[in-house]
Write a structure and sequence with these properties.
The chain is 83% helix and 0% strand. By secondary structure, it is an all-alpha fold. The chain has one domain. The protein is rod-shaped. Keywords: Coiled coil, Signal.
């Protein structure tokens, strides 16, 4: 919603600039002020998303390390396990591998979107980011539950 308001404000500012006849007129000053406010609003939205993106990147990396540690433990345990136990461990390992790939994809999406100016988040930037953030939170919660030592799955 903010992006639509910002876009509308920017369009109004541009329209005011074209209708302004004299440099330094009230309309000209109002258009300049509106353009500055729009620029500031866009910068604030970008800064908020950048901060949240950095927080997710850190959380993704930490979770990725935890997954790697658990997968190494499973591999070590499989060396001396029975065939039945190996099958169960392999199932857990496969699940962790899928989580690891999902995390890697999300880390790449966060990095790519930051560098390309959020082009993948079509439409309302805030809505696109919220959807990505909600999906990521669910994923991190699922991974956390799967890594709990009491096997609470």
């Amino acid at each position: 919603m903010k992006l639509r308001i910002i876009t509308l404000s920017l369009l109004l500012a541009l329209a005011g600039a074209f209708y302004s006849c004299a440099e330094g007129s009230d309309a000209d000053r109002a258009a300049d002020e509106m353009a500055n406010e729009t620029e500031n609003a866009l910068a604030n939205v970008g800064a908020e998303i950048r901060q949240e993106s950095n927080e997710f990147a850190t959380e993704f990396q930490e979770t990725r390390r935890n997954i790697d540690v658990r997968m190494e433990q499973i591999e070590a345990d499989m060396a001396n396990a029975t065939e039945e136990a190996k099958a169960e461990m392999q199932e857990e390992w496969n699940e962790l591998e899928a989580y690891r790939k999902d995390l890697d994809d999300r880390m790449n999406r966060v990095g790519d979107n930051m560098e390309r100016g959020w082009k993948d988040f079509k439409g309302d930037v805030n809505q696109g980011w919220r959807e990505f953030a909600n999906e990521s939170e669910r994923l991190l919660n699922d991974i956390e539950r799967s890594l709990e030592p009491d096997g609470d799955r």
